[in-house]
Design goal:
By secondary structure, the protein is an alpha+beta fold. The chain has a domain of 85 residues: Alpha-Beta Plaits (2-Layer Sandwich), CATH 3.30.70.100. It has 10 helices and 8 strands. It has an 8-stranded antiparallel barrel with strand order 1-3-2-8-5-7-6-4, surrounded by 6 helices. The longest helix has 10 residues.
């Protein structure tokens, strides 16, 4: 797989990504919360993951046939389902690849529940959220899922990508998917993104953040860790829950622990 495609594939997650391989914001100031020892205090500085290009020679000729850097789609759908047998479901999933491409979906990431591997979570990025809704809401697809062994209600969410900080070299990580009701999404986003140091200290190596396209008070978070126990400990910690409450989260967040699996970009 070409390096660019591999990097873009890994970046598919971003419940939640505004762009590949870096943070959407960086700050060099210490907030009052940091001075008070808040568990989600911001890092004192941000670092770019890619080095700046050297200045071009004064009379350099324009580069020829240089393709623009790929951009992540601005939307994504998350599908959570319980299946009888993963291999049976996967066979049906693979057979429906062309229909996903025709619906404007640009790739996928498959995840499985940490506690129950028959819980299957699918992340689908897209540039056209209405086409994604039409595809995922189609009765024909629902019938296919039922025939493939999907049990009970399929949970489908549609989100606009708000930000992410992920390392494209890290694959097969453990993760936590969180859904939270917030008082004000912009305020929550600011508070959440200021918690870089607290997450790093807890072993969280990446995050993604997005907002529901219909209910703007619903935030979706994705947290990555190299160790399942660390991400579980972090989301269950009293300090984490208090920090989220202080940031405007209303009530408990819904949490699904997962293990990352197959990633693909559609040609």
């Amino acid at each position: 797989m070409p390096m660019r495609q591999l990097i873009l594939s890994v970046c598919l997650f971003a419940l939640l990504i505004a762009g590949c391989g870096g943070s959407t914001e960086a700050t060099s100031e210490t907030t009052p919360a940091a001075a008070a020892g808040d568990p989600n205090t911001p890092a004192t500085s941000g670092a770019e993951l890619t080095a700046a290009e050297p200045p071009a020679p004064e009379h350099a000729e324009p580069a020829a046939n240089v393709a623009p850097e790929p951009q992540m789609p601005p939307y994504g759908s998350m599908v959570v389902q319980k299946v009888k047998n993963y291999e049976t479901w996967k066979t049906a999933w693979d057979a429906d690849a062309q229909a996903r491409k025709d619906a404007g979906l640009t790739g996928h990431m498959l995840m499985r529940g940490t506690a129950d591997p028959n819980v299957v979570v699918v992340w689908l990025p897209t540039s056209d959220i209405e086409k994604a809704k039409a595809y995922l809401g189609n009765k024909e697809l629902k019938d296919k899922l039922k025939q493939a062994g999907v049990q009970g209600k399929v949970d489908v969410t549609y989100a606009s990508l708000a930000g992410a900080q992920m390392d494209p070299k890290k694959q097969g990580l453990s993760g936590a998917l969180l859904t939270a009701k917030v008082k004000d999404f912009a305020a929550f986003k600011t508070a959440f993104e200021s918690g870089t140091q607290a997450r790093t200290d807890a072993g969280i190596v990446g995050y993604g953040l997005s907002q529901d396209v219909t209910d703007k008070s619903v935030a979706y978070m994705y947290l990555q860790s190299e160790e399942p126990a660390k991400v579980k400990t972090y989301v269950e910690a009293k300090e984490t829950k208090q920090a989220w409450k202080d940031a405007g989260v209303v009530g408990p967040a819904k949490v699904t622990l997962v293990t990352e699996g197959e990633m693909a970009m559609y040609p």
